[in-house]
Amino acid sequence: MGPGTFTGIRIAAATARALSAGTGIALAKNSTLAALAAPALSCSPDVLAVLDAKRGQIFARRFSGTRRTNSIHCVRPGELEVEGAPVLVGDGAVRYRSELSALGRIPPDGSPLHRVTAAGHVLSADLAPVRPEDLVPIYVREPDAEVRRDLNPWSRP
C-alpha cells in the first residue's frame, strides 16, 4: 500500500488491519502506482504512473506490460528522466504537465486514466490473501515530522 503521505498510509494500513482482524475478511496488497497504471496498460505497453507527492515532488514508477520496470522515484518533476516515450498518467502528470510533457504523452486533464480506480486495483493486485501483519506500507520518503525535527526546540539535545 502506498506510496502516499506518511499519515495517510498509516491510517489506511491501520484501518485495513483492524477491519480484517475484526471481521475475518482477507486482505490483498497492492500499490497505488500499480492500480493507476493498470487501465492505461490496456492502451499502451509502456506507462509511467505519476502521483503528486506534495512538497513540489512526485512519486513515479514505470510499468511495461503487466510488470513494473523500476523502483519508485520521489523527485522534483524536472529531475525525472526516462528513456523512450511512455504514456504518463496520474494527478502528478496533470499538475506538472509542463515539466513532464517532454518525457512522453500525457492524456487530457479530464481523462479517467489519471484516476486510481477500484478496477485498476483489481487488474493490478496480487489477490492472494495476506495476513494483517503482512500488509506493509510503502514509504518512499521521510515523514514531514522527521524532515522538520530540527525546527522543534524540544527535540534538541
What are the SSEs and their pairings?
Layout: H1 6-23, E1 27-29, H2 32-40, E2 46-54, E3 57-64, E4 67-68, E5 73-75, E6 87-89, H3 91-95, H4 97-100, H5 118-124, E7 126-130, H6 144-147
Parallel strand pairs: 2-6
Antiparallel strand pairs: 1-7, 2-3, 3-4, 3-5
Helix pairs in contact: 2-5
CATH topology: Nucleotidyltransferase, domain 5
Global geometry: globular
Task: Give the low-pLDDT segments.
Answer: none
Strand tally is 7
Give the CATH class.
Answer: Alpha Beta
- Sheet bearing the most strands, described? 5 strands, mixed
What is the first-to-last residue Cα distance? 35 Å
What structural class is derived from the secondary structure elements? alpha+beta
Mean pLDDT: 84
Q: With helices defined by DSSP (H or I, 4 residues minimum), what is the helix count?
A: 6
Number of domains: 1
The CATH architecture would be: 2-Layer Sandwich
Helix percentage: 25-40%
Let me know the CATH homologous superfamily.
ATPase, nucleotide binding domain
Strand content range: 15-25%
Q: What is the radius of gyration?
A: 17 Å
- Give helix and strand order, one letter per element, not per position: HEHEEEEEHHHEH
